[in-house]
Design a protein that fits this description.
Shape: globular
Largest sheet: 5 strands, antiparallel
Helix content: 10-25%
Number of helices: 1
Low-confidence stretches: none
Structural class: alpha+beta
Radius of gyration: 14 Å
Order of helices and strands: EEEEEH
Mean pLDDT: 90
Length: 89
Amino acid sequence: MTNIGRKPIFVDKAGGTTKIDKFILLPRNLPKRLEPGEQLLEYAPDLSVLTDNLLSLWALDSLGKFHKVEERIMKDLIEKVKQKRKHDT
């Protein structure tokens, strides 16, 4: 996650939406205040939601605003997970 805005944000949660349901990730480093330009790298042990059924990934700030991951970045992430799954089998 990167705060590309001009003001600090306080990221409370991260999650996403699939064709079937919504989900919340259980990150290790949230909640976290992000200054403008500051990045946060998060880890998720369960990548099972990263399939073609994924519609969106997002972070939720303390004001209730959703910050969505760009679609091209999300698709690239899904493709990388697919390649890893192929390599692991």
